[in-house]
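Hey all, sorry for the wall of text incoming. These are the three entities for the joint prediction.
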Amino acid sequence: MSELWRESAVALAAKVRAREVTALEVSEAHIQRTLEWNDRLGAFLHFEPEDVRRQARRIDHLIGSGADPGVLAGVPVGIKDNICTKGVRTTCASRILENFVPPYDAHVIERLREAGAVLFGKTNLDEFAMGSSTENSAFRPVRNPYDLARTPGGSSGGSAAAVAAGLVPLALGSDTGGSIRQPAALCGIVGAKPTYGRVSRFGLVAFASSLDQIGPLARSVEDAALLLETIAGHDARDATSSVRALVPLETATPKSLRGLKIGIPIEYFGKGLADEVRAAVGAAQSTLQNLDASVEQVSLPLTEYGIPVYYVVAPSEASSNLARYDGVRYGMRAEAQELKAMYRATRGRGFGREVKRRILVGTFSLSSGYYDAYYGRAQKVRGAMLRELDEVFEQVDVLLTPATPSVAFRLGEKTEDPLAMYLNDVFTVTANLAGIPAVSLPCGRSSGGLPIGLQLMGKRFGEEELFQVARAYEAASKQTHVWPPEPEGTQEPAA
Amino acid sequence: MPIEPDEVRHVAELSRLEMTPEEADSLADDLQKIVSYIDRLQEVELGPDDEALTYFDADVHREDRTASGLERADALWNAPDADGEFFLVPKILAKDEE
Amino acid sequence: MKVVVLIGMEVHVQLRTQSKMFCRCQVRFGAPPNSLVCPVCLGLPGSLPVPNREALLKALTAALAFGCTPPAVTKFDRKNYYYPDLPKGYQISQYDQPLGKGGTLEIVTQEGVKVVRLRRLHLEEDTGKNLHDEGTGRSRVDYNRAGTPLVEIVSEPDLASPEETRAYLTALRTLVQYLDISDGNMQEGNLRCEPNVNLHIEDGGKLIKTPIIEIKNINSVRNVERAVRYEIQRQIEEYQQKGAAVTEVERATRGFDADKGTTFVMRQKEAAHDYRYFPEPDIPPITISAAWRSEAQARVPELPPARRRRFMQEHDLGEYDADVLCRDHHTADYFEAVVAAGSAPKPAANWILTEVARHANERETTVAQLGLASARLAALIDLVESGRIARTAAVKKILPLMLDSGEDPERLMTTLGLARLDDENLLRAAAEAAVKNNEKAAADYRAGKQKALSALMGFVMRETQGKANPDTVRSILEELLSEE
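and here's what came out:
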C-alpha cells in the first residue's frame, strides 16, 4: 500500500503540482487508510470513496490541461460536519439534521475548491459542536487513535483523530470554546483558532455566533498555516468578517526569537493541572528561552470567570441559533396533530441531551427577570476580561499556557457530570471570549504515551507572529506529531 | 439561586422542548447545578466602563442590489412536508401564536 | 360617567428597496410562492444576515422626518419566538437602540391640527405568510415576504377618537409617500396598522381603566376608523355590563371583521411575552456617521405640515382644503402647477378638490394621474372666472370632453357654442321680451320686490339656452325697469 498518507500537505501539493504523483494516487492512499481505520475511530460520518476519486480526477485533468490547480492541489481535507457542503449531507452530528442537504457551500468550502483541495469527507463532532469529547455525537463517539478507550477531545474530535491517524493530512474544525485546540492537544497535532473575523462564518452552522471561528487542524505548523491562508479573508456575506488581509504565514522558520516577550499567566498553572502537563509546558518554556525569547510571569485574575462567562454567553446565543430547527423548512419533523405539539416533539426528540441542556441554560439566561443577572452580567465580565487581556498584551507579545488541564480522558468518564466536562475548556475559552488567535501544538507525551499540548495566544490579528513562534518552537523542540500504533494484526511501520 | 420546578417547565416551554417526566427531573438537576456554578459571576466587581465590548473590524452593510436566490424546488427540497409550492405545517391553534 | 379614549398606533411600513433587508433576494409583491428566497431568508443553517444600506438610509430618513433623535450608534437585536412564518425562530429587530426615539406627527381633522407624540421608530425584517387551509386545517407557508425591510413606528396613546386615528394613519401614509420610502399601499400590505385602544372611565368618583386591546387585520384607512369606533363602543358596553370588574378582563388581541364591522377575539395575551431580546451577534453595531445623517437629511423634502402652512399663507387657502391637497404630494404638485399656469389659487383648489377629484374617483385613479394637463385646467378655470362660460357648462360639458380628448377648453367652448352671449342688442331684445311676457314680475320689481327680478332673469336664460352672461342681463333688465 502506498505510504503517501504519511506525507505533509505541503509536500503532497508540491508533488501533485510537479506531476510527481497524481491527485488520484494521493486520494487513493488516503481512501485505503480511511477504510482501514475509520470503523475503529468513527472519525468520518460521511465518506464516499467514489466522490473523492471523482474530485481527484478533476484535479488531474486540470493539471493535464496546463491550468494552475491551486495551492492545495490534490490534498485531501476533512470537513467538520457543521460546515455546509452543497449537495452533501451536513448533519452537525444531530438527529434533527440527519438528512439535511445544504443547497450551498460555505465560504471556506468555496475557498478549498478554488485551491484544488479534495473534499474528503465530513468529520464527526459533538452534536452542534457542543462538547469536549465527541461523545455527544448522535451517531457514534470518536475514539482517540493513541488509546481507543479514550476520547480524542471535542468538539472537532473527528477532524483531530482523522489527521492524527493519517486519514487526511488536513481538516477543518470549528472552535467556540476550544473545540479545535483541545482535540488537537489530545491527539498530538496542531490546531489553530484564528482571530474572530479572520475566517468567514458563512456556511458554518452557528453554535455561538460571537465566539465561533473555523480553523485548521494539521500535523505541522506549516501545514496548518497553509490551510489557514487558504480559508482566511474577507467575505461580504458575513458582516463580522474582517477586511484585513492575512499576512502570508509561509515564512522561513525563525532561528531566534530574540526580542520576543512571552507571558506566562500564573492563573493557568494552579491546582487541577496534571503534573505531566505542567512539566511538558515548563520544558516548552525552556525551549523558547533557549531561542532567546524573554519570558515573564503575568497575571490575568479574571481567568477563573472564563468558564462561567462562556457557559452563559454560548448557551444564550445557541438557544436562539437553534430555534430554527422547528421541523418546518428542513430537518427532522415529529408528526403531530397541531403545530405546537409538532414543535415540541420535533425538538424534544431531535436534540440530544447536552444540546437540550444548553438550550435550557441559554433560554433561562435570556429570560425576563434573569437577563441582567446572567446574560447581561456575563457580557460585562467578558468586557472586563478583554480589557485585562489588552493590558497584558501591552507588556508581552504572546501568552504561553497549557492547552488542556490533562491528557485524554476515558470515554464515559465525564459524561454524567456536565460541569466536569465543561472544565476541559478552562484554558481555551479566553481566546474565544476575547476574539484573539490561539494555537495548540504538541509539547510532549505522558508516561502512557498520550499527547500533551501547549497553547500560544496572540494579539488580535496577530497570526503572523503567533505562527512564527509556533514554528520556531516546533523546529527547536522536535516535539512533532507521532504516528499512532497500528491496529492489531498489522505490523507497526517504522517511524 | 434555587430554581423552582415551575421555572424549569417555563423555560422548557419557551424553548419548545418536549421532555419525559424523568428527563425533566434530571435536566432540572443539571440546570440547577449549572446555574449555581455560573452564579459565581455575581461576585465579580465591575467598573462603570465594563460593558460588553465589540471587537469587530468589519464592513457591515451592503449595496441594495439583488441576486438570484434558490430555485423553488431547491428551497423545498429539504422540507419535511411541502406541496411543490408551499411548505406545509400542521394545524395552528390560536394558542400557538405568540 | 366621563369617558376618555386613549388610542396608540403601531404602524409597520414596508420600505421600497430592490433587495431584502438582510439578503439579496428581490422584494416583489405577488410573485409565485417561495420563488424569492435564498438560504438567508429561509433561515437555512449557516446563513448570515448582512444589512441593506439603502434600507438603513430610508429608515434614517424617516426618523429625521418625524423629528426623532437618531442615536450615535444603532444596533440590531433578536426577538425570539416560534411561528411558522418566522424562518429563524427569531426576528431581527431593534430593541434598546432604535434608529429613532421621540418625534411627532401632525394630524389634521375637522377640529384642527393636533400633534401626536411618537415613542420610537425602528427597523426590522418582515415575516413570511401563513395561509390557513380551511379544508385540511393545515397551513401553507410562503417565505417570499420574509426579510422585507420594515419600519415600525409606535405612537404614544395620544389619539382620542376614531377620526383622529384615521387622520393619523392618513398623515403617516402621506409622509412616507412624500419621503418616497414606501408605496404605502394598505391593500398590498406595504402599510399595516394596529391600533391599541382603551378607555379611562370616570364614574361615581372612580377611575376605571379598561384593558388595552390591540386590533389587527385592518386593511384600509376607512376600516381603521370603523374598527376603532366599534371597539370603543364595545368597551363601553363591556363596562356597563361588568362594571369595575372590567379591569380584570385580560389584555387581548382582537381581529377586525370588515364585513360585519366588528372586532372578535383572536387570542388572549399570554401572561407576558418573553421575547428574550438580546443583541444580534451576527451584525456589529452600526455607527450613524455625520455623512449618513446629512445624506438622509438631504432626502427629506418639504413635508406635509410645512407645505400645508405655505399653501395657507401664499394662497390664502383654508386649513382643511390645504390639508386635503397636501395628503397626496402628487395632488399638491398638481395644484401648484395649475397655479403656476396662471390660475387663481382658490378656484384652482376648489376645482381640484371637487370637480377634478370626482372624475378621479369615478375612474379609480388620482388627480395627478387623470391625464388632465395643468395648463388646460388653468385655462378652463380662467374661462369661468372671466365669465366667458357658465360654470355649469364648464363642469358638465367641457371638463368631461377635455378628459376624453385632451382638447383645449376654449376651442371646445367655441365648437359647442357654449360661449356666453354678451351681445348687447340680442340680450336687450330678450330682456324686452321678458318684461313684456312677465308683466306681474315686472310690476312687482318696480314696486320694490327685488326678488322678482329672478323670474325675468330665468326667462332670458331659458331663451338663450343658459348662455347669456347673467351680469349683462341683470344690468339690462335693471335699466329697462327703471326707465318707465
